[in-house]
Amino acid sequence: MADGFSGKIKEKLIEAKQKWAENGRLLTGQADHAHENRLPPGQREVKDWPVLDLGITPHVGTDDFRLTIDGEVENPVTLDFGQLLDLPPFMAKNDIHCVTSWSRYDNHWQGVSALSLADLVKPTSDARHVLFTAHDGYTTNVRIDQFLDDDVLLAHHWEDAPLTEEHGGPVRVIIPKLYFWKSAKWVRQITFSKTDKPGFWEVRGYHNNADPWTEERYG
Ligand SMILES: Nc1nc2c(c(=O)[nH]1)N[C@H]1C(S)=C(S)[C@@H](COP(=O)(O)O)O[C@H]1N2
Ligand SMILES: [Mo]
Q1: Domains of the chain (ranges plus CATH)?
Q2: Ligand 2 centre and the CA of 102: distance in Å?
Q3: C-alpha span between 12 and 50 (Å, rounded)
Q4: What strands, in cross-sheet order, belong to the sheet with 66-71?
Q5: 108 band by pLDDT with thresholds 50, 70 and 90
Q6: Over 70: is that where the pLDDT of 3 sits?
Q7: Ligand 1 shell residues, CB under 6 Å
Q8: pLDDT above 70 coverage of the chain, percent
Q9: Which of 55, 81, 145, 189 is the most exposed place for a label (fewest CB within 10 A)?
Q10: Tens-place pLDDT, residues 23-40
Q11: Hey, which of 6, 53, 158 would you mutate to test ligand 1's pocket, going by the most ligand atoms within 8 Å of its Cβ?
């Protein structure tokens, strides 16, 4: 489906991030349960937008983009880019919080809301979990209530321009309330299921739930 890749897996970075998890890097013990601060504990604000991934950039054009939504749904679908754009447009502004410590405020997104996708595929009453699979082999998991929140979207534009390849274009997931590793770039499959399936970082020491304000970095 992708018409190529560039780069190679950053083994050293993956090792370093696993060590950070073992050592509890950045933990302050000062959870902000009430969200009193805009900046979650242990984070710092950046003005640029760092690129973070496993090192491989899949080249997926809008022409060969396909998104499959399957599993515990009444109406499984595979959408091409045009069919995705036919769904109700959704705009959002939110902050990004990466577990490596950077946060970036006021990102403006355009895309399709998770709630619109759910209207289309109709998750069954047995669906409890969602697994995202991306073109670089990355996976990440959330609970269905974390995905079907009113601020979650599949984004194809950032700051009024098509989402760049390095940031997950043509289409990535944005789940604002969770650490950014839960927001899969180059998403190609969204699978609803009865059971949970921990993703790439979740099996390497990172928290299953990933709430930045309660420092769910590792676990
Ligand atoms: N497909 C894919 N999605 C991914 C990742 C990845 O390696 N592959 N890395 C995650 C991590 S750890 C972060 S912090 C964000 C980084 O997104 P950015 O490069 O646009 O800042 O993407 C997340 N989604
Ligand atoms: Mo990250």
Answers
A1: 2-214 (3.90.420.10)
A2: 9
A3: 18
A4: 77-80, 66-71, 187-193, 129-134, 139-143
A5: very high
A6: no
A7: 49-54, 98, 134, 136, 138, 167-168, 180-181, 183-186
A8: 99
A9: 145
A10: 999 999 999 999 999 999
A11: 53
Which residue type is seen at 133? Answer: T
Tell me: pLDDT of 2 over 80. Answer: no
Q: Is 116 exposed, middle or buried (0-12, 13-18, 19+ CB in 10 A)?
A: middle
- CA 3/CA 5 separation, integer angstroms: 7
Query: Rounded to whole angstroms, how far apart are CA atoms 56 and 168?
Result: 11
Which tokens sit at 140?
């990440």
In the numeric block, the tokens 């998750």 are attached to 123
Average pLDDT of the residues in 57-64: 96
What CA–CA distance (Å, rounded) separates 205 from 60? 30
pLDDT at 1 over 50: no
Q: Report the Cα–Cα distance between both ends of the chain, in Å, rounded.
A: 34
* 8 Å CB contact between 192 and 213: no
* Ligand 1 atom 23 nearest Cα: 181
